[in-house]
Specification:
By secondary structure, this protein is α+β, with helices and mostly antiparallel strands. Helices cover 22% and strands 37% of the residues. It has a single domain, classed as Protein Transport Mog1p, Chain A (3-Layer(aba) Sandwich), CATH 3.40.1000.10. A hairpin with a 4-residue loop joins strand 4 and strand 5 (62-65). Helix 1 packs across helix 2.
Length: 205
């Protein structure tokens, strides 16, 4: 189970850091003005990005970046938390004795059913992948496709470079949907309004 989440975490971060494969996706009868849909026709969500952005897709994660000179990027993915009855042991972040251990055998079992549950687990994976994130805002309430969700804004270092991340987490019927925007701290404000629009146009069926 820990391996499953590590693979999901690694996939998202890899797509964020290295976007290399271009692909085309279908379009809707309705698309927001100035935007293109990059989610597949058979996906249980619709995800839109500006027309001027370059659409890329690795088959599991929809992604796009701004331009060849500005590699600020956005990804969107969804996967099942519980394929049958899935439990993960979540360490308490308030327990200083836990250190940076992702999951310990002494913690109580807790079903991952909310955005907060998922982030608590995912945050432990971040500690192992990126080190301790520097939060600008943690767990802000936000509506994504009309559903209660959480937003996380933070800085983290990848391969010696500081990046600014914005992630939204939405859980619907055991499936977690994650939007990730990645840029440099210097370029964040240039794209903040566009990212808010991208989030606002997300449709989850």
């Amino acid at each position: 189970m820990k391996t499953f989440f590590k693979k999901c975490t690694a996939s998202v971060l890899l797509a964020v850091a290295v976007i290399v494969t271009a692909a085309s996706c279908g379009r809707d009868a309705y698309v927001p003005v100035g935007f293109q849909r990059i989610s597949p026709d058979n996906a249980d969500y619709r995800f839109y990005v500006p027309d001027s952005w370059t659409n890329v897709n690795d088959g599991n994660i929809c992604a796009a970046y701004v331009s060849d000179t500005d590699r600020s990027s956005v990804t969107f993915t969804g996967f099942e938390i519980n394929k049958a009855v899935f439990f993960a042991e979540i360490g308490s972040p308030s327990d200083s004795s836990a250190g940076t251990e992702a999951v310990t055998g002494s913690t109580s079992e807790k079903k991952l059913v909310t955005a907060e549950d998922y982030w608590e687990y995912y945050e432990n994976e971040l500690l192992g992948t990126l080190g301790s994130p520097e939060y600008i805002e943690k767990g802000a309430n936000i509506l994504v496709s009309g559903r209660e969700s959480k937003r996380y804004d933070y800085k983290a270092t990848v391969s010696g470079i500081v990046y600014r991340f914005t992630q939204t987490v939405t859980v619907v019927n055991g499936t977690v949907f994650i939007m990730t925007f990645t840029t440099t701290p210097e370029l964040f404000e240039d794209h903040s309004e566009t990212v808010d629009s991208i989030i606002g146009y997300i449709e989850i069926k």
